[in-house]
Amino acid sequence: xxxxxxxxxxxxxxxxxxxxxxxxxxxxxxxxxxxxxxxxxxxxxxxxxxxxxxxxxxxxxxxxxxxxxxxxxxxxxxxxxxxxxxxxxxxxxxxxxxxxxxxxxxxxxxxxxxxxxxxxxxxxxxxxxxxxxxxxxxxxxxxxxxxxxxxxxxxxxxxxxxxxxxxxxxxxxxxxx
Length: 177
Known about the structure:
Blueprint: E1 9-19, E2 24-29, E3 43-44, E4 50-52, E5 54-60, E6 63-68, H1 74-79, E7 84-88, E8 109-111, E9 117-126, E10 131-137, E11 144-147, E12 155-157, E13 162-164
Parallel strand pairs: 8-13
Antiparallel strand pairs: 1-2, 1-7, 2-6, 3-4, 5-6, 8-9, 9-10, 10-11, 12-13
């Protein structure tokens, strides 16, 4: 079942490779409860096509070890190592009040302290330290990154389609003579 352009896919896990010799697969889970992966069937590829259907799973240190319909031998599991696993946003539970999914930030207008629109959130990235908002400037040109912190993004108005941003001020270059 192909996804329509309006369906946002959420990254929920990644195949870590084979577990044992019976075709089980280790999956790193990016969900609060790793066992929730069983409820989000089938797990999809980035293009929305089916990737894996979990038959059963048990908790593991980084996620789950699963028996999967599409995998019967160790070599098949190893071949899928690194496969990212997604589910449509609408399959996930609604967040609690004052909570949200990072994907909900994509598409929001980025407004400065004077309420002027400076750009749009293109994506949320994490290069290892913390989440970064990738901003597409209103006037065009290359995208730029803003740390997703309370200081840099103090006001979120997701239901209204915008967030307030504070760009870091340039550091003064001072002579140290």
